[in-house]
Amino acid sequence: MSQLRHAEYTYQLRRYIYKVRNELKAGWSENIYHQALARTLQEHGVPVLSKPRRPLLHHGVEVHCFEPDLIAWDTIVLELKALAYQAQFAGEHYAQMIHYLKFLGKDLGLLVNFAPSPVQIKRVVWNEPKLVITEDYDEFKTGLSSNDREYLLQIRHCLLAIAQQYGLGYPETMYRKLAAIELVQNNISCVSEIEVPALWNSSLLAYHKTQHLLIGNNYLLHVRSLLEQVTNYGFTQTRTLLAALGLKYGVIINFGYQQVQIHGIKTK
Question: Distance between CA atoms of 144 and 139, rounded to whole angstroms?
Fold first, then answer.
């Protein structure tokens, strides 16, 4: 059996986590357990940072500020919860830890739920995957003007720059902001949170706010992440929004679990 990653450190951390829970018992807030664990680690000589704030900047613009609960020995990230009504950690909790590990350059995190007895502790391991990029532009084979081709190539260049610099593992909200900043940096106009008119019998029902990016007033960009592949709904929705805006071409990018997938798409 292979040795667990950072086994000696995690053994100590588990002992201190159980100590805090046994002394405080159940029923306290996440902050109370946080303060107690931070003090316990300090009292036992464990180098620990409590809620360090680390911003991610792209071209000088803050995209996101990471604030993990604790970092012990500058090696293990701890995220503390007091989930009284959840038997298991949710996918969002694991995703949050992966985001921390990726950004901080760490390879192990501990999710800790102080509510149940015994305390629930889950190891989250992160290994930066090798970047693989797949592209599909079959829908662009016919009808693409030279101007459209040139513009779409510029969009592709910006998306590949983001993929090469940041790889995989972040939420789509971050990739969307990164893409918008990169496009503007390359003198390509980009509008976020556009409102698309929904019509019924030629009359306006309402405006639909979408997370798609409007690029150069002529193209839609749909940014996804942490999917195995883009869903059929993602393609259908983008085509619907293209038609509603009177546009013809769009791009969908998925910063997935194992690869970056780029698809060219057009209205039918």
Answer: 9
Phi, psi angle pair for 226, to nearest 5°: 55, 35
Give the position of tokens 């546009």. Answer: 247
Closest CA to 17 of 75, 78, 99, 63: 78
Identify the residue whose tokens are 């012990």: 72
233, 146 in Cβ contact below 8 A? no
Instruction: Specify the pTM.
Output: 0.88
Nearest C-alpha neighbor of 166 from the set 92, 52, 56, 54: 56
- One digit per residue, the tens of pLDDT, for the chain of length 268 reads 457 899 999 999 999 999 999 999 999 999 999 999 999 999 999 999 999 999 999 999 999 999 999 999 999 999 999 998 887 899 999 999 999 999 999 999 999 999 999 999 999 999 988 999 999 999 998 889 999 999 999 999 999 999 999 999 999 999 999 999 999 999 999 999 999 999 999 999 999 999 999 999 999 999 999 899 999 999 999 999 999 999 999 999 999 988 999 999 999 7
Map tokens 């085509």 to a residue. Answer: 239
The two structure tokens encoding residue 180: 């918008």
Q: Is 258 exposed, middle or buried (CB count within 10 Å of its CB: 0-12, 13-18, 19+)?
A: exposed
Distance CA 205, CA 246 (A): 17
CB 33 within 8 A of CB 24: yes
Distance separating alpha carbons of residues 203 and 104, to the nearest angstrom: 51
